[in-house]
């Protein structure tokens, strides 16, 4: 069975800076895939290709990774 996923989410971010949100597990076969969601809508894998996702602000719960 797969292990519990681990999310790496910064506890604070400077406005205008880039961040990386990661989620992974130590083992599992086949490897799991992850998607980030905001209000039940999947966030694009590359937000720079979607004008609607530029200059947005997301507030994240640092305890569970929810946006």
From TrEMBL:
Known InterPro entries for this protein?
Answer: F11R, Ig-like_dom, Ig-like_dom_sf, Ig-like_fold
**Lipid bilayer topology:** Single-pass type I membrane protein
Q: State the PROSITE patterns in the record.
A: IG_LIKE
Does this UniProt record's set of keywords contain Glycoprotein?
A: yes
Cellular component terms per the entry's GO annotation: bicellular tight junction; plasma membrane
Taxonomy, superkingdom: Eukaryota
- Could you tell me which residue ranges the Ig-like domain spans? 1-67
Chief location: other
Name the UniProt key words of this record, in alphabetical order: Cell junction, Cell membrane, Disulfide bond, Glycoprotein, Immunoglobulin domain, Membrane, Phosphoprotein, Repeat, Signal, Tight junction, Transmembrane, Transmembrane helix
Localization per Swiss-Prot or TrEMBL: Cell junction, Tight junction; Cell membrane
Q: Locate the coiled-coil region(s) and give their ranges.
A: none
**Per its UniProt record, what SUPFAM superfamilies does this chain match?**
Immunoglobulin
Q: Tell me the PANTHER family matching this sequence.
A: JUNCTIONAL ADHESION MOLECULE A
| Protein name (Swiss-Prot/TrEMBL) | Ig-like domain-containing protein
């Amino acid at each position: 069975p797969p292990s519990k996923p681990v999310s790496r989410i910064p506890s604070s971010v400077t406005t205008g800076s880039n961040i990386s949100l990661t989620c992974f597990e130590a083992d599992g076969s086949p490897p799991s895939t992850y998607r980030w969601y905001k209000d039940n809508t999947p966030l694009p894998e590359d937000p720079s290709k979607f004008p609607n996702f530029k200059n947005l602000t997301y507030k994240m719960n640092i305890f569970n990774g929810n946006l």
